[in-house]
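Memo to structure team: turn this sequence into structure tokens by end of day. - J.P.
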Amino acid sequence: MRPLASASGMISALWRFRHFILTSIRAEFKGRFARSGLGAAWHILNPLAQAAILSLILSQVMGIRLQGVQDPAAYPIHLMAGTAAWGLFSEIFNRCVTVFITYAGSLKKISFPRLCLPMIVWGSALLNHLLLLTAIGLVFLLLGHPPNAAWAALPLSILLISMFAF
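Reply from structure team:
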């Protein structure tokens, strides 16, 4: 009975501090791109450029193709999907490792549940990931592959990647 009670206590604490979490996510998002000339576009352009370069070199120069697939856009799509999934995992994992050190000043000055900090990291990573997925969806459209039923699995895959990263 004790673990269930503590889980519900954590959820209620997160709910009570939801405004703090949302405000922190918003401030972190603005602060991350405040000094960048491209702003949030840089977060989207970087993985897209990596996937484009890799797909150009691997599929065009080296002639690598997905086995059994004749579509020339299949390999770049495969790379972009993998890059997006890895980006979400690595951002959550790497930032959660140091989240308590990063927010040490806030921990000393403000009283809030410590569980809020990983939720801030998660929310910020999800926001970044959704922007990237939007850009990838546009690239898929340009490559002649509109979203299909497989995109319905995205919420579950995002949840599983997030849980594994935590």
